[in-house]
Specification:
Helix content: 40-55%
Shape: elongated
EC number: 3.5.1.2
Largest sheet: 4 strands, antiparallel
Radius of gyration: 24 Å
Number of helices: 18
Catalytic activity: L-glutamine + H2O = L-glutamate + NH4(+)
InterPro entries: Beta-lactam/transpept-like, Glutaminase, Glutaminase_EF-hand
Distance between the termini: 32 Å
Structural class: alpha+beta
Strand content: 5-15%
Family: Belongs to the glutaminase family.
Oligomer: single chain
Protein name: glutaminase
Number of strands: 14
Strand order of the largest sheet: 1-2-10-11
Length: 450
């Protein structure tokens, strides 16, 4: 693919981070290796050369992505069966409480205009919030109001609260902050002089109440990446260094992909707690292509059950090219992440429905995974892929001869059309990052709590 949408997971200590990347050309030549230290954890990123057409990166049980990209060289991740086996928090859980880094304190102090006393103020606030939730001694809303209270006034700045939340990686558009933002807007409309969103104690508490759990989590430094500003700085450095690499060429196996701009380069990150950052051409839409295999597999496994799915497709690496015409020793495709397995998985998707309803079902599931971010369809890429599908047709007829397809399968042309359509679904880096975060969070949307 010329523009390759990649969603994968990095491991930083005990933290999951989901990343969506939009790469320009497949890169060829020497490997670029980058080692950074973050939170006392060494992270090594390797830009792979491309003598191979694909690679399979295992991401937990029976799950792999196939594409050239920045690969995190973290062997424990490849061995882990489940995030919980590595003490990784899921929805509703928080990492151990940590003191704010100096970078965090500097950012908060600048926003609050209290640089000299910010460490003491934050320590007192965190201690109070901990007691508020553990011992219920005081109201967390009151503690948050006191933190943002203006000197000599019984009013607090809601705009400064929003700036502090942004410094932790949370966005104003975060669905968990929607009710707070709507309430704030209603107060602003009621008062012609908004005075930089200064609110009385009662109005401030009413405004933040729907989102107080998230606000408290951020202020207590319990988001999954504590030193967010430092983390983003490290990622931006890597991003800018990789941007200078010009070797390689775009994929040519599909005509539409061969016409893509090789200079497009963007990155988005979404953690399981909804911390987000993006760089470069992150708003540029691109077709998911083989990244769809991972999500289709997850959708079908949730719909029919993993045991049923694996009665038709295996779960071991093939050790062969992604489009090899072969089956495993049991007469099944090796796994759902190579073309043979992905075609069989597609044939299992609501195969009692019409083709239109099957496509709509998957599209709606993608939009759920993306939490409302952009998911579209590129018809030109679909038509181009269908016109150059001889290999996939040969593979499908081989599997039909070996009775790999489930009963009730519609014609091969129809099944392959659906497979090509799902490869031609369109996302952006930000969409891919949210979808990856959903997988990293065990299927739950961390920034929506669904």
């Amino acid at each position: 693919m010329g523009e390759v949408g990649v969603s994968f997971q990095l491991l930083f200590g005990c933290y999951w981070v989901a990343v969506g990347l939009l790469l320009g050309p497949y890169r060829k030549g020497p490997c670029l290796q980058k080692v950074v230290l973050f939170e006392n954890t060494q992270i090594k990123l390797l830009l792979l050369p491309t003598p191979l057409s694909r690679f399979e990166l295992l991401l937990g049980p029976f799950l792999s992505f196939s594409h050239h990209t920045l690969l995190p060289l973290l062997p424990p991740l490849l061995r882990a069966r489940h995030p919980s086996q590595m003490n990784m928090p899921f929805l509703g859980q928080s990492p151990p409480s940590e003191a704010h880094s100096q970078h965090n304190l500097n950012a908060i102090g600048e926003i609050l205009n209290r640089k000299t006393s910010v460490a003491q103020i934050m320590s007192k606030t965190v201690e109070g919030l901990n007691h508020a939730y553990e011992l219920r001694d005081s109201s967390p809303e009151d503690l948050i109001f006191d933190l943002f209270k203006m000197p000599n006034k019984d009013e607090a700045s809601i705009s400064k609260l929003i700036k502090v939340l942004k410094s932790f990686g949370l966005r104003e558009s975060d669905p968990r902050l929607r009710h707070m933002m709507e309430k704030m807007k209603s107060f602003e409309d009621d008062d012609d002089d908004a005075r930089n969103f200064l609110l009385s104690r009662d109005k401030f508490k009413e405004c933040i109440h729907p989102s107080v759990q998230l606000i408290s989590q951020a202020l207590r430094n319990h988001l999954i990446i504590p030193s967010w500003g430092e983390f983003c700085g490290q990622i931006k450095t890597i991003f800018e260094e990789c941007k200078l690499i010009k070797e390689g060429s775009v994929a040519t196996y599909i005509p539409q992909l061969a016409r893509q701009n090789p200079d497009i380069w963007g990155l988005s990150i979404c953690t399981i707690d909804g911390q987000r950052v993006s760089f470069g051409d992150y708003k540029m839409p691109f077709c998911v292509q083989s990244v769809s295999k991972a999500f289709n597999y997850a959708i079908v496994s949730s719909d029919l059950g993993a045991d049923f799915v694996h009665s038709y497709v295996g779960h071991e690496p093939s050790g062969r090219l992604f489009n090899e015409i072969c089956l495993d020793a049991n007469g099944k495709p090796h796994n759902p992440l190579i073309n043979a397995g992905a075609i069989i998985v597609t044939s299992l998707i609501r195969n009692h429905l019409t083709m239109a309803d099957r496509f709509d079902f998957v599209l709606n599931e993608y939009r759920k995974l993306a939490g409302g971010e952009h998911v579209g369809f590129n018809n030109a890429t679909f038509l181009s892929e269908r016109d150059t599908a001889d290999r996939n047709y040969a593979l499908s007829y081989y599997m039909k001869e070996n009775k790999c397809f489930p009963p009730g399968t519609q014609g091969l042309r129809e099944e392959l059309d659906l497979y090509f359509q799902l490869c031609s679904l369109e996302t952006t880096c930000e969409t891919a990052a949210v979808m990856a975060a959903t997988l990293a969070n065990g299927g739950a949307l961390g920034h929506i709590r669904r």
